[in-house]
Write a structure and sequence with these properties.
The structure is a homodimer of 373-residue chains. With 373 residues, chain A is of the alpha/beta class. Chain A contains 15 helices and 16 strands. In chain A, strand 13, helix 10 (254-262) and strand 14 (267-270) form a beta-alpha-beta unit. Chain A is globular, with a radius of gyration of 20 Å. At the A-B interface, helix 13 and helix 14 of A face helix 13 and helix 14 of B.
Chain lengths: 373, 373
Amino acid sequence: MKHSLTYELIKKDSRTKARRGVIHTLRGDIQTPVFMPVGTQATVKAMRPEQVEESGAEIILANTYHLMLRPGHKLVEEAGGLHKFMNWNKPILTDSGGFQVFSLKGLRKITEDGVTFQSYIDGSRHILTPEIAVEVQTSLGSDIMMAFDECPPYPADWHYVKKSLDRTNRWLQRCKDAHHNTEKQALFGIMQGGMYYDLRKESAEKIVEMDLPGYSIGGLSVGEPKEQMLEVLDYCVDFLPDNKPRYVMGVGTPDYLFEGVERGVDMFDCVLPTRVARNGQAMTSEGPLNMKNKRFEHDFTPLDHKCDCYTCRNYSRAYIRHLVKSNEIMASMLLSNHNLHFLINMMKGIRKSIEEDRFLEFKKEVYEGYYGK
Amino acid sequence: MKHSLTYELIKKDSRTKARRGVIHTLRGDIQTPVFMPVGTQATVKAMRPEQVEESGAEIILANTYHLMLRPGHKLVEEAGGLHKFMNWNKPILTDSGGFQVFSLKGLRKITEDGVTFQSYIDGSRHILTPEIAVEVQTSLGSDIMMAFDECPPYPADWHYVKKSLDRTNRWLQRCKDAHHNTEKQALFGIMQGGMYYDLRKESAEKIVEMDLPGYSIGGLSVGEPKEQMLEVLDYCVDFLPDNKPRYVMGVGTPDYLFEGVERGVDMFDCVLPTRVARNGQAMTSEGPLNMKNKRFEHDFTPLDHKCDCYTCRNYSRAYIRHLVKSNEIMASMLLSNHNLHFLINMMKGIRKSIEEDRFLEFKKEVYEGYYGK
């Protein structure tokens, strides 16, 4: 089947599963491995879209759950779609809303049809089904839409995960059946199966059989130990075809990005860089810095001496500390800009290191700087 | 005496006291009448300095009171001065801190020497005297510094205002004596005298006699009726020489700007455009708009169809309403940018109208749009 989105493999690392590629979309190419900034409510917080683009971002993520509730997907459609509404012309990936809905413990009810839940804004009742998730994402007009799935909790027993996976598989078929705008929007499938290898294999075979343009490995980073997460991830990736992009959702700390890439993942997203920015944290080549710290009071050097972003070119740690202490919006603006630049630049370094077959060496360098080890 | 700042009169309106001029400073020219955005804590809230400049601002204001307490003027001096600290290379005007200190009812004590007060941040005790106000502003390195004065409350009886004025006059002499960096920083005097014409005249004669590079008309907009404010202002301006700029502090609504210009004032500042922006208000040629209003929900037109700012070029009212309702920082960013652009563009229109000798006609046009009358 011909998809609106294709993946081109450029180079494989010789010692790990890391791979360098390009995702071709109708709104432009995405160099992979890629970090996708999150614009939950149709804005990457505290940044103009031009600044997001300047940081090197080639795709952003937006959240179906939030946007269907406010301002409403029909309104976004009326505005001409999400790209036009928020003034971002490069690709957008939307999630299915499933993850947020399943996080609302007690506030939601799962049936074969879908999930009923209460709005976090006003408590009103809503329903998400595979068909509605596709409909909402169609209205938003994202370039990549995600299938509606259940992300089982951790821990969960085998029987629950099996039952959940079977339903998720039926939901995937319903998503595919409901998805008609295939010429412009690519539907990604999501692998589930919890921490159970047999179920992961079953899930993988099912989604691959459906020949979708990309696959996500879901149900990870839900509370399990890091080692277990990485082992399951390592196991999962091998079932996925070389000619499709692989995506792990909600992952954004430098270590998880490296570990994910090392295991063959191409796409990541996380609110981390902008969220910690709003708490006064700078992500730097020397590790995370709490800008409220007294030691930066008279520090007139940039946040990161290895960084050439707008923030680092023009402002000192002392100034940014002052802004953070003064609760100035400009603190969030400057730190979000820097942190996003830092992470995206790190991904650029990862891509280059794969091209030069020195991924593991680059990983070691970054770890030594960021984690001091 | 040769000053670091000079005023050049270009044209007088034929029917009012409105005048078109240029203030020449070492950091560039300022076309007058001018509106100066306020960067209280060394940042014009929610805007990058380049965006402030792009709005057409040729000078900004910063607050001595806030900066001496946080981060501290010595730290700003250590950073290389306020311009470098905050990345703004055009002129900066600093107030003396007096106005803020006198607003802290009960928390301050006035003596001949100066004013003791408590920090709004941590309650610690501080003192401002004419000498300290000059010292702080010298450390900040502003292009225009303001004399330390007392702004008497409204209403206040003649005897109180007379006593206060005499002290303010002695303080002005002390400011002048303490001000040594005259080659780079211009000290403006401030006229006081409350609502009493005899005291205003006395004050005016005193400050003019001192041959300062510019004069502010202080003690207005402190609670008196608008008509009285304008009458006193009208009276005051006539005592000021044609070859020096005249400044009314803290004034920024369109009507006060027009009324001030009409009475011969050249300089204004106000937090209004950025403050109302953070409350979701757009200032437009059709008047102020509350962007939370339901009627903008499906309005895909720009904030102001007569505006060509970044916000209006790229975003709809519906999008901005969504951001405001969602408490997104981007709402403050886009509205601050627009409101500043709106006010500064209005001043541009005022300057042009004076050049073309149609100030009153322009005033009428703007009033009809903004106030619907």
